[in-house]
Amino acid sequence: MAQVSTRRRDFLKAAGCAALTIKGANDRVNVAFLGVGRMGARNIGYAARVPGFEIAAICDVNQPARDFREILADPSIDAVCISTPDHWHAYMTVEACKAGKDVYVETPAFVNVEEGVKMVEAARQYKRVVQAGTVERSGTSVQKAREMVGSGALGDVRFCRAFEAATTDGGVHLMDIVQFAFDEAMPFSVTAQGSTPDTMLATFRYPGFIASYERRAGNEHGTAFHGTKGTLIVNREANTHVAHWKNFLHCIRTRAKPISEIETCVRSTATCVLANLAMRRGTTLDWDEKAWKLEV
To answer: When you count CB atoms within 10 A of the terminal residue's CB, does the N or C end of the chain come out lower?
Structure first.
C-alpha cells in the first residue's frame, strides 16, 4: 500500500505541475479529471489517445491537484471526467452540470436511487452531454449482439444470463448489456439471494423475458441471450474505452446524445442496487416500470 501511495503521489506531482499549464487550441475540448486513482489515471490515458481533447487539469484528494470546486468555476474547462469513489458521482455530476460542464462519469452512477434521478434532471435542465462509463456499448461485439436480438436472428429471446467471477466487479456493465440489447427495457420485479460479498444470484422479471445475474467463484464472465433459434454469449471487450471517449468528444461537439447517456446508466445501476436491496431484505421487490421513464 505504501508503494502504491508513493506512485500515486509522484503521478499527481508531475501531472499537477505540467497539466495545469496546458492551453488548448480553439478546436480542442479542455477536460479536467476529478479523481486520478486507478480508473481516473486510465481515463487520462484513454482521453489522451483521442485527438481533440486537451488534458487541462486534475483534481484529487492528494495535493498538488486542484480542488474540484476551483475546476468547476474555471470557465476554460469544457468538460470533466469523474472517477472518484462511487458516493461522489451523483453530487459532482449535478454540480458540474450546474457549472455548464459536460460530464463523463464512471460506473456505478450512484449509491442511492434518488441520486440517479437528480443526475438525469440536472443533465436535462442544464442541457449537458453526460456520458457514463458503461463502455461495452461502444464495443462492436455488444453492438452486434443488440442487432441480432432486435432483428430476431436468435428467435424469441425468453431468457438472459449475466455471470461473473467474485474477483471482478462488473454487475452494472453486464446488466447494462441486457438492457441495451432490449432497447433500454427495465425489470418490474427482482428477487435475490446469496452470501455477501462473494456469492449472489438475482432474478429479474422483464416484460417478455427473464434475466439472471450470477456472481460466484471461478473466472468466467459474460452475458448470454437464449433464443428459440440459438444462444449468443457476449464477453466484455478489452479495448472499448478509447472508442467511448471518441463518442463523448463527438457528442460534445454536435450536442448529440452519447451512446451511454446518463439515463441509461442510471437505469442499469438502479437494476443492480434494487437487487442488492432484495437480497438484504430477503424479499421480492416489485415496482412500476413506467416510473423509470424519467421524463423531466
So the answer is: N
